[in-house]
Write a structure and sequence with these properties.
It is a single chain. The chain is built from 10 helices and 5 strands. By secondary structure, it is of the alpha+beta class. A 5-stranded antiparallel beta sheet has the order 1-4-2-3-5, with no helix packed on it. Helix 4 packs antiparallel against helix 5 and helix 8 crosses helix 9. It is globular and about 50 Å long.
Length: 212
């Protein structure tokens, strides 16, 4: 499906002990032991609970899931919702029985995602200010905020923070010192990075990276 990536997680397998799920701007359709859940866009770290289980997920590129689900992203912000809350029961049963075929069928009935949303993600991920991104797209601030709420679950400034955090984590995981990580990722300084990590992940950066 365009704009989505299929993934799996097996108890004891690679990534099984990854722990916290950090904000990344994405939404997921999750399938495990007959349950179909939708993971909305996160604004803070999410700690999965329950016993180990096999999971299959369809991860949507930021801004693409709402058109497929038929629900604005902000209604699912920081939630894990049963798909039966969003779709008719018969459709959920059909999807449960034939997950891939039903998903493709629904995707065919949905128009392609607004290309401006992908361009917005690319611009913000490159570190450009929201106002600059809006000018490049030729849209106003009010339109951008309204479309961002529906597509991403939060406004463009929060999306920019989430993407900036992901840039910082990618740099820090390669061994870049925290001070350099902060500047290269677009933070004012290391203290600014530390504040954002605490707000979005709920712990210090060194703890988040495993005691580095």
């Amino acid at each position: 499906m365009p704009g989505a990536v299929l993934w799996t997680k097996t108890p004891g397998g690679p990534g099984a002990g990854a722990g916290l799920v950090l904000p990344d701007g994405c939404m997921d359709l999750l399938w495990s032991e007959g349950r179909l859940l939708v993971a909305g866009p996160d604004t803070r770290a999410y700690a999965p609970g329950g016993p180990p289980a096999h999971w299959t997920g369809l991860r949507f590129f930021p801004g693409t899931a709402p058109g497929w689900l038929g629900v604005p992203a902000h209604e699912l912000r920081d939630r894990r919702a049963d798909l039966a809350e969003l779709w008719p029961a018969a459709e959920v049963r059909r999807l449960r029985a034939r997950l891939e075929a039903a998903a493709l069928e629904r995707a065919e009935r949905t128009g392609p995602p607004d290309p401006r949303l992908r361009r917005l993600v690319a611009a913000l991920d490159a570190g450009r200010p929201v106002a600059t991104a809006a000018d490049e797209l030729g849209v106003g601030a009010r339109w951008l905020h309204r479309r961002s709420l529906a597509a991403f679950g939060y406004g463009p400034k929060t999306l920019a923070r989430v993407l900036r955090l992901q840039r910082a984590l990618a740099l820090a995981r390669t061994g870049v010192p925290f001070a350099q990580t902060a500047l290269r990722a677009g933070f004012a300084d290391q203290a600014h990075l530390a504040r954002d990590v605490r707000e979005l992940a709920g712990m210090p950066l060194s703890e988040l990276l495993g005691g580095r």
